[in-house]
Amino acid sequence: MNSSKTRMIFEAAIDIFCERGFEKATMDDIATKANVAKGTIYYHFKSKEELFVFLVEEGTNLLREHVLERLSDQMTPTDKIRAIIHEQLTFFKDYRDLCIIILREAWGEEQRQLQFRRMLVHYVRAIEEIVISGIQTGEFAEIDSQTAAWSIFGGLSITALNHLYADPSFNLPMLAPSFEQMLFHGLTGRHEPIDE
């Protein structure tokens, strides 16, 4: 974000979109919350949709930076996936309202869905590369790496969203051990394939 006014608009938009949803939020509401003239918002954003897309894009960039910068080349693929689980849950806890907006609103109309998936692709691709690395080293089973990456992101996201709605004060990183257990050992806890 390149200015303090943009930051104020961004933070006000998070509050208003989270509280009222995309459809009921107005630029007037956001301007009042940000303590700026409505014209100031329109100077930076042509429409409510453009502001919303900016908010989602900034949010996904924050997520990517927050999680991936915690990874190091010294970590094994398993360690990296564990770190992703913990850091994504931590991000959702620290940016609760932003995450609710992204996960609740971004799956609305078709155009918004496409934009959202494009924004997330770099983050999910980074997870996929770790899965591929784990397959190559023999740490992970031969699985579809893209499905695994989206499942990790999606499973964490929906689980977090459920808890954020049920109890906003819930400490999301506490879910990490259960999620790791299910991811690395499955529901059965067996290490051999399940007969079909």
**Second-tier CATH architecture of the largest domain:** Orthogonal Bundle
CATH topology-level fold name of the largest domain: Tetracycline Repressor, domain 2
* Residue windows where pLDDT falls under 50 for at least 5 positions: none
| Large-scale geometry | elongated
Mean pLDDT: 87
Sketch the major β-sheet: none
List the quaternary state of the chains.
single chain
First CA to last CA: what distance?
Answer: 51 Å
In CATH, what is the class of the largest domain?
A: Mainly Alpha
Q: What portion of residues is helical?
A: over 70%
The tally of domains stands at 2
Secondary-structure content class: mainly alpha
Total helix count? 9
Key traits:
single chain; 196 residues; mainly alpha; Arc Repressor Mutant, subunit A; Tetracycline Repressor, domain 2; 2 domains; 0% strand; elongated
Overview of this protein structure:
This protein has helices spanning 4-24, 27-34, 38-44, 48-68, 77-94, 96-105, 110-137, 145-166, 176-185. With 196 residues, it is mainly alpha-helical. It folds into two domains: 1-45, Homeodomain-like (Arc Repressor Mutant, subunit A); 49-185, Tetracycline Repressor, domain 2 (Orthogonal Bundle), CATH 1.10.357.10. Helix 1 packs antiparallel against helix 2 (27-34), helix 1 crosses helix 4 and helix 6 packs across helix 8. The chain is elongated, with a radius of gyration of 19 Å. This is Fatty acid metabolism regulator protein.
